[in-house]
Design a protein that fits this description.
This protein is an alpha/beta fold. The chain has helices at about 1-10, 30-45, 60-70, 80-85, 100-105, 125-130, 150-155, 160-165, 180-190, 200-205, 230-235, 235-245, 250-260, 270-280, 295-330, 330-345, 350-360, 365-390, 390-400, 405-415, 420-435, 450-455, 460-490, and strands at about 20-25, 50-55, 75-80, 105-110, 120-125, 145-150, 175, 195, 210, 225-230.
């Protein structure tokens, strides 16, 4: 399949205008707020550079790799994550060596923004009082507790495995889930202990008990902004604006901004804009950062989603039809072809997206590449099955009147196999609409973006804003294919005739 990857790389080579400054952020509210602050500060610093914010891109490793590769220009990070996770192979003993290690990778780091968002473990206050738990060490006496940790925390070098070993915790009922969903599980009583970010708005809102890290396991997680070193040369005013953010956000201010987004429903852009205005002693104009209405958001998501589905389906059709013809003409080769596209279908979607970030970067390109690969199996199988189902006598008749292989394929075989071929394409298209929502995790946009935002903000309306249009698009595609089948396929070849 190397040639397929080569085709995709050629079609979707990473190209980005020098005049564009791209900010990234992780899949939690604070990171999105800080990303908006960086993006707005960059816009204010220069008028001749287009600033984009690719929010909710996933975890630390994805963003850091994207930064080093030049796919994004800046994103908010934390010193503890840098030292113990992203640069753990260097074995840095303190935060003092982080900056120099980053310079070697073409990255610069601001001084701390002014707050430490460390990890902690939390329980509901009622449950903590009931069990007499106030410190992490107290968990040793309660081996039957259910733990629910964010998926990233489960695998980090400074996460659950190291924490468990440091405290010798005996609990084995540990599940991974989204950080925002963990709060729901905790309050509902399905989980006893979760990991917290110390500046989370939910800690105060739910009145949670934060367990004392009595062994001082967790380091400081001072918030900083990472940006590419070449930004200082390409966009010196932007680099200066980012550096000036150092020391401007203390812990209480960050908690307040998180609360305004998470609990009061303000947009991240609005909160970021008001912060920058107050910092500069100006009157904040909420109209300048007013959120786009529902219709505008759905229209934008529809355009992005249609692009992902349309391009990936077009590429898949161009590749799958010849593969299906080959698989039908040479049954031995056909088994190999179907086996390969079948294996591609079994690769977990998130894993495939992350793998494809390396050759394609973040954004729509890896999403389209993944959707292309997933769409192949139903199409190839439909073409192969349709052609294989044509009676041998029909093929012999076509040969008898002097039709060559290609003419026979185009005039006789493809039309007779049209129904299963269209069925395979339709199946791929409907599946692709659903899979495309995952592209939002790597900055591809589409209907997945409001779904991710809704999960993060516990906003069911936003989830529906992405889920309902996706379902409507899938139904519309199915209806369009059925209509096309009625118009294009002769009545005698249709179902039931």
């Amino acid at each position: 399949m190397r040639w397929i990857v080569l085709v995709l790389v050629t079609c979707f080579g990473v190209v980005r205008a020098q005049e564009t400054f791209v900010v990234g952020s992780k899949l939690f509210t604070e990171s999105v707020v800080l990303g908006e602050i960086v993006a707005l500060a960059a816009k204010e610093a220069t008028g001749d550079v287009e600033v984009l914010h690719r929010d909710q891109l996933g975890g630390s490793q994805i963003l850091f790799n994207a930064l080093v590769a030049g796919e994004i220009d800046a994103y908010p990070e934390y010193t503890g994550t840098l030292r113990l996770e992203l640069l753990k192979s260097l074995g840095l003993a303190s935060d003092e060596g982080i900056a120099s290690a980053l310079v070697e990778r073409g990255v610069r780091m601001t001084w701390p923004l002014g707050f430490n968002n460390t990890y902690a473990l939390g329980m509901t206050a009622e449950r903590a009082r009931e069990l007499g738990v106030t410190t992490t060490s107290d968990l040793l006496d309660h081996p039957d507790l259910h733990f629910g940790f964010s998926n990233e925390f489960l695998d980090r070098g400074d996460g659950w495995p190291a924490l468990r070993d440091a405290y010798r915790l005996p609990q084995d009922r540990v599940r991974g889930l989204d950080h925002a969903l963990a709060y729901r599980g905790l309050v509902a009583g399905d989980i006893d202990v979760i990991d917290l970010y110390s500046t989370d708005a939910e800690i105060t809102y739910y009145g949670l008990a934060v367990l004392e890290d009595d062994l001082v396991f967790f380091p400081r997680y001072d918030a900083v902004i990472l940006y590419r070193a070449d930004v200082a040369q390409r966009m010196p005013r932007v680099a200066a604006a980012i550096d000036e953010l150092a020391g401007s956000i203390d812990e209480s201010l960050m908690v307040s901004m998180n609360e305004r987004v998470k609990l009061s429903g303000e947009s991240e852009a609005n909160v970021a804009g008001s912060f920058l205005a107050e910092r500069e002693g100006q009157e904040f104009d909420s109209q300048a950062t007013q959120a786009v209405g529902v219709i505008g958001r759905v229209a934008t998501a529809t355009r992005e989603h249609a692009w992902l589905v349309g391009v990936s389906m077009a590429l898949a059709t161009v590749v799958a039809v010849p593969l299906g013809v080959w698989a039908s003409a040479r049954p031995a080769d056909g088994q190999v072809i179907l086996g390969i596209v079948g294996v591609l279908q079994t690769i977990p979607s998130l894993a495939l997206l992350v793998v494809l970030i390396r050759p394609f970067g973040v954004g729509d390109k890896p999403a389209i590449a993944a959707l292309f690969l997933y769409a192949l199996l139903p199409m190839v199988r439909g073409v192969q099955a349709g052609l294989a189902g044509i009676p041998a006598s029909t093929i012999d008749s076509a040969r008898a009147i002097g039709l060559g292989w290609f003419a026979r394929l185009c005039v006789v075989e493809i039309p007779l196999a049209a129904r299963p071929i269209l069925a395979g394409i339709k199946t791929s298209a409907v599946i692709t609409v659903g899979f495309a929502t995952l592209g939002a995790l790597i900055g591809a946009g589409g209907y997945g973006k409001p779904i991710l935002t809704g999960i993060r903000l516990d906003d069911f309306g936003l989830i529906l804003e992405g889920a309902v249009p996706a379902a409507v698009m899938a139904l519309a595609i199915q209806f369009a294919f059925e209509l096309f089948e009625r118009l294009a396929i002769p009545r005698g070849l249709r179902r039931g005739r």
